[in-house]
Each structure stands twice: as structure tokens, then as C-alpha cells.
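User: C-alpha cells for HutD family protein, please.
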Amino acid sequence: MHHFDVESLPAGQWRNGGGTTREIASRPSGTDVFGWRASVADITRGGPFSAFPGVDRTLTLLTGDGVRLTCPGVFDRVLARAGEPFGFSGDLDLVAELPGGPCRVLNLMARRGSWTARVERVTDPVVPRPGHSGVFYVLRGTWQDESASPALRPGQGGWWDGDDAAPGGALVPLSPDAAALWADVAPVE
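Assistant: Done. Predicted C-alpha cells:
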């Protein structure tokens, strides 16, 4: 498992100036076209979201008072509860509003037809599936994988490739308040 701390990941500015992105993983690495990608975005002002044709996206609020995503005639959704994933097509032209100010989100993208992704909030142990890729992000409390690595705290986590020999075994909560986001990314057969 490749561990990360969001605060130590480099932040890149959005082209429209509405926020920054900290990339957790993009696979395959070293290419311009990703199969799947996970990042944390700090949205600092409302405006249009970049379209990603052929990509399915899942956005999950991490911190802040929420973000309102609208696509006229398709949906109008407020992400107001931290840890609640919302999936949508990257083909859509979206506009984001920040009713309560800046916020932070986890953004998972999967190339349609090649990968599928499911994001869920978990409080019980999870085990990476063989042949799947994924991301684990701690929302609160402490967690541990079965390696000898230090406990994971909020804003930290790990990711792995389906090609990794062993992604680290089960991820288990160490505190009664522990909650995390679990993203399972699978190749399309």
C-alpha cells in the first residue's frame, strides 16, 4: 500500500482559478490519459467544473459547509454531509456553488468502459480485493493496515494498484469514532 498525507501532496491550481487539486494517484502513471484518478480538491470559489468526457466521477465532501452542483435539466444536488459520495457523468457541464464558503472534496474518476469505481463511507474493517485498485481515506479516528506502518489519521490514507502483489491486508479501525472512505476501483472485464 502506498501511504499518503493530503497536506504533504503538492497542490496544483485549477485553470479557472476556483481551487487547487492534490493528486493522490493517477493510473497508469506517466501518461496524459488516466484510467482512474483520485485527488483531493480545495474549492475556493463557485464556477464551472471542468468536463471529463468518457469519465465517471464520484465527489465526496470532506470538510466545509458543502457544495451545490447543478446541471440544468439533469440534477441540482447539494453535498452537505461529509462522507456521502455522489456519482455523476464527467460528460456533463456542471456549475458549483459554495453556499457556506470554501470546502474540500475527494474526487475519484474512472475511465468509462475500462474501469468502474464505487466509493462508500465505512466504519468496519475492509479488505482490498485481489486484482482491484483502490483508495482509502481517513475521515476521523485512527485506522491501521496490517503492515507495520504507523496508524492512519484524518487526512491520511493509502492507495494500491490491482497489479500490486499485496495491498497490505485488512484496514481496521483503532478508535470507536473511526470512519473512512473506501474506493474500490475494478477493471471492466
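User: Anything notable?

Assistant: The chain has a mean pLDDT of 91.
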